[in-house]
Amino acid sequence: MKQAQPVIEQLTVLGVGLIGGSLARALKQAGAVRRVCGWGRNQATLDQALELEVLDAASIDLAEAVQGAEVVVIATPVGAMGEMFTRLAKVLDATSIITDVGSVKGSVVEAARQSLGPAFARFVPGHPIAGTEKSGVEASFAELFQHRRLILTPVEETDARAVALVQRLWEAAGSEVIRLTPDDHDAILAATSHLPHVLAYALVELLGGTEEKRRMFSFAAGGFHDFTRIASSDPLMWRDICVANQKELALAVRQYRDALNEVLQAIEKSDTAWLMDMFARAKLARDTLLPADARFSSPE
Amino acid sequence: MKQAQPVIEQLTVLGVGLIGGSLARALKQAGAVRRVCGWGRNQATLDQALELEVLDAASIDLAEAVQGAEVVVIATPVGAMGEMFTRLAKVLDATSIITDVGSVKGSVVEAARQSLGPAFARFVPGHPIAGTEKSGVEASFAELFQHRRLILTPVEETDARAVALVQRLWEAAGSEVIRLTPDDHDAILAATSHLPHVLAYALVELLGGTEEKRRMFSFAAGGFHDFTRIASSDPLMWRDICVANQKELALAVRQYRDALNEVLQAIEKSDTAWLMDMFARAKLARDTLLPADARFSSPE
């Protein structure tokens, strides 16, 4: 991926954690950006990112951090993005392109539309389908996006050249870029990502709830370990996603609850034919439909 | 683990699949048994096990297979164990010790009590907390039980020397042996293993249910991959477990459904404080309470 000329001179990352840090590392390693500047609320985090050479420059002053940036990536928690758009609108260069990495797109696009003003046309909503259950810049690594999908959800107003530039950056980071509407994105991610996280958190909470139940953890087998890995994810991130994707996630949880009630009835009736059919169908779906690249999913 | 003298001369395994095959391999590798004989309904499976040197001898005739066995291990699906006890009672040597590897203990112990007659005192109920989502003798390997727990659930009538011998064999296979009552075993396994499997199957079924939903699989991220791995397990095994542990599993599913309804309410009300507390508590429980040996859980 080494390129003779970088795609852009300066990238500014707002929120230098697992995702923002990994994108900075990936683009620098690919030679796609000459200089990465970082912004965050916490000077210690920025110092750590500078020391790890994830960043070339950093500031807790937003205006200073975004000055001269051709592309600004918002990699803060989803719940902080509304405020980021409001603040950015006041300090952004007139030609800077903005993109984000939020796990929810509909509500983020709406917040951007309301707050960015004329800069909204230069906002390219994005979401990398990548991550680990770890968080923080110390967990970041350049290969996080290799062979993983990156979803862009541009809307009617979005500038086509801005979309093309953001796409080129993510491809340089190793991603396969695809486009969806914000609504399709939110419905699909509710089912395949947000729902499983909620289910895993709920299971661990159920078992961890009382002292007597906590000893059950010592009997947990491998299936439980795999099943609940995602319950080690950042609680704040998931709280934000529950709010930002409320409608689609609540729908998915209700559908799942209804499906679980059907299973419960089959168990209570010892309906062996129904159980055998369902388990066999699910096994077939999992074995045949999951993309092979999912093996890149747990790099730890 | 190499021993100068084998613990027993002949072990007979009824049902030579992942668990039965792995136990045969482990005990032979440890030098704990001189000869392993296998029984199964299917001659081709037995031939495969002989070719893989998992077995030294095999027969589809139960009387022939168990003749001369100091220990007989029932490693058939749980649903077939009732019939196995009835058939065994007629052909078993007068001193053979019987054990099993079933994922449910209460109903298996009751079936043994009803069918084994005087041999019931020589039946040592067991359950190795080990496995992969694969099945069949071709997936078996000697290290499957290393550092994994093996639960024995002897009852009042169980002969203490029989328990001691079965424990010695599992320890030779690398397991850490502990004892529980059948009821405690079934409640704990319902929560930590049977419930997660049912939840994973239900999620895959929900997403795999319609053509339109099937395309969602192509967006599945790593969390989904880990979360649903156990839905690749043997459907027949899990159908049997749902029937054999009906009471405890139904209770666990109902408790989970109620917990999920609480989460749903919090999502619908955007109760950020409740969500943040629950996610943080669950993350802490998962990060601190899961035994480190769970890393041995997915050997594939």
Task: Explain the layout of strands and helices.
The structure is a homodimer of 300-residue chains.
Chain A: E1 8-14, H1 18-29, E2 33-39, H2 43-51, E3 57-59, H3 62-66, E4 71-74, H4 81-91, E5 97-100, H5 106-115, E6 123-124, E7 126-128, E8 149-152, H6 160-172, E9 176-179, H7 182-208, H8 211-214, H9 222-228, H10 235-244, H11 246-268, H12 272-289
Parallel strand pairs in A: 1-2, 1-4, 2-3, 4-5, 5-6, 8-9
Antiparallel strand pairs in A: 7-8
Helix pairs in contact in A: 4-5, 7-11, 10-11
Quickly list its features.
13% strand; 3-stranded mixed β-sheet; homodimer; 6-stranded parallel β-sheet; 12 helices; elongated; alpha/beta
Describe the structure.
The structure is a homodimer of 300-residue chains. In chain A, 50% of the residues lie in helices and 13% in strands. With 300 residues, chain A is α/β, with parallel strands linked by helices. In chain A, the strands form 2 sheets. In chain A, strands 3-2-1-4-5-6 form a 6-stranded parallel sheet. In chain A, strands 7-8-9 form a 3-stranded mixed sheet, covered by helices on one side. The two termini of chain A are 24 Å apart. In chain A, 55% of the residues are buried.
Main sheet specs of chain A: 6 strands, parallel
Strand order of the largest sheet of chain A: 3-2-1-4-5-6
How many beta strands in the DSSP annotation of chain A? 9
Instruction: Give the class of chain A from helix and strand content and strand pairing.
Output: alpha/beta
Helix content of chain A: 40-55%
* Backbone shape of chain A: elongated
